[in-house]
Design brief:
Blueprint: H1 2-5, E1 14-18, E2 21-24, E3 57-62, E4 68-71, H2 72-75, E5 81-88, E6 111-120, H3 121-128, E7 136-147, E8 150-161, H4 162-165, E9 171-176, E10 179-180, E11 190-192, E12 205-211, H5 218-221, E13 225-226, E14 237-238, E15 245-250, E16 255-257, E17 260-269, E18 275-281, E19 289-290, E20 292-293, E21 304-312, E22 316-326, E23 349-355
Parallel strand pairs: 3-12, 16-23
Antiparallel strand pairs: 1-2, 3-4, 5-6, 6-9, 7-8, 7-12, 9-10, 9-11, 13-14, 15-17, 17-21, 18-19, 18-22, 20-21, 22-23
Domain Moybdenum cofactor oxidoreductase dimerisation: 239-347
Keywords: Metal-binding, Molybdenum, Oxidoreductase
InterPro entries: Ig_E-set, MoCF_OxRdtse_dimer, Mopterin_OxRdtase_euk, OxRdtase_Mopterin-bd_dom, OxRdtase_Mopterin-bd_sf
Amino acid sequence: MYNQRFPDIKPYLKTHSLMPENQETPIAFIKKDIVENPLFYRRNHFPYPMLSSSFYWLPINGAVKEPKLFSMQELIQFPAKKLKVVLECAGDKRSFFEPKVYGEQWGNGGISQGYWKGVPLKALLEQTGLKDDAKEVIVEGYDYGKQPGIDGIHRFARSLPLEKALHPDTIIAYEYNHQPIPFKHGYPLRLIVPGWYAMASVKWVRQITVIDSHFNGPFQSIDYVYYPHKDNNNDSFPVTNINVNSTIQKPNNMQILNAGRHTIKGIAWTGKGTIQRVEISTDNGQTWSYATIKSDHRSQYEWVSWSYEWVVSEKGEYTIMSKATDSYHQTQPMSPFWNRKGYGYNAADCIRVKVE
């Protein structure tokens, strides 16, 4: 009835900042397993880059036998790979941490997915040839600026260990959902690293450099590091694989419901393997039941949609929870792994509703 009365009303991104632009996907309104460009979350450290015609050439240099400069025309001639991939901000759900942590206070919308098409990075590196002492591959974007807590001006750059860089599903993408990548999501070239948090999927790729040492750029050695202690850097380790996770999309948190039958719906995803089961509790975690997973959505790298039919007759307040388990037997914990920068939140999802 609501949509019939107001047919032009559409969901929109939730804004955290505009300079740089950081906006999250309205995940409760995503009905399909593909997120279209207008609702794909936006995560930036700096203002959008000013691109010149030189962007259409991709240099690969460093610890390689034959440095190369690839044109866009050359790139699209390589055998292409198309993958449906979840991209999740490492700070997704940061606002749920207790005690609170500083940073963009993302809710549950720092996540989107769609089809990415491009050329495997491995194929390009094979064209250059790797020297025997090659260890990591740095991918640098055109975006740059100053970052709080980091001295100086830096370009956004990340490295991959050789094993991950040579994985056949690590691609230099030039299409998203069968169209050129939108500018705000990395046009014309974006690295896509399936299974890793999206900081690894560098946008607006400027150049690729193979190195024979460990990369210590600030977005790898300072940011995107788990710091388990509030007052020191002991026991720190890098952010890489996406943690197993789930989100309840329906009903909404703090929604008032009538007694009767309700469908609890949501998504679940993981960085390694596939989702094997999703469990639902309607009594604050005291008892759990299995949700139904859509059978056609169990391929690697994408989220699965799930649902659970809940019949409630008694009035009152209820805490609904969801937790997913993947093929590596990783299950969402009841409490998150607290860390100072607020990365990788994956505690069992939790909402509250009132039945009248």
